[in-house]
Amino acid sequence: MEAYTGFASVYDRYMDNVPYDTWAENIKTLFNKFNMPMEIVCDLGCGTGQITRRLKAAGYDMIGIDVSYDMLMEAMAAEDSEGILYLCQDMREFELYGTVGAVVSLCDSMNYLRNYEELLTVCKLANNYLDPKGLFIFDVKTEHFYQQLGTSTIAENREEGSFIWENDYDSSTRDNAYYLTIYEENEDGTFDRYEEEHLQHAFTIEEIKAAIKESGLELLDILDVATMSAPAEDSDRLYFIAREVTK
What we know:
GO molecular function: methyltransferase activity
CATH topology of the largest domain: Rossmann fold
Number of strands: 11
Number of domains: 2
Distance between the termini: 41 Å
Number of helices: 7
GO biological process, one term: methylation
Keywords: Methyltransferase, Transferase
Structural class: alpha/beta
InterPro entries: Methyltransf_25, SAM-dependent_MTases_sf
Strand order of the largest sheet: 3-2-1-4-5-11-10
CATH class of the largest domain: Alpha Beta
Protein name: Methyltransferase domain-containing protein
């Protein structure tokens, strides 16, 4: 099953608990902390453009990249999407017309990479398209997060529909499978059913540090997303902040 196809049209409805405002403010804080000027920003794995549009509203020229055509259609249909360039590309092969001041990748997009080689590829591409001293900022869900999920099921019934979210984490491979089933009610009382499978991977901090170094980037900091402070053993999501240093 291809991810983010039928689910794209209802994604924002069921993801209404995601703190996009806070995450966008975090990125702006990091831009200021590490002297990112008001330049072009590429949002890698932008989905429906929630972060992309918030950074656009903050004054940045935005490029949004996602592999899902359906998610990009939702992004472009938003009222505040004017002036944003959206590109349908795989993050492992993305191409830009020139360099940018920063590349960001949030909402665990990097967890969709399957292994170290793919992680390294994306880091190298980000480095290639960054302006001198440009920033690459991304988040990842941690191994602790997936361990807490384990094998579990999350279900929610709403007035307009319902979803079932089954999780299966393999600690030996650090791979997590999400099985989504969504029921959306039509005006005539019938239901549409969508099914998707999402695969994510838990990278270790050491793997990510190694990929950043091997790609030629300089690691500036690692932060717990929830606290914006040093990572803890029970951190669920981390920011990695890296800088271009070779141009």
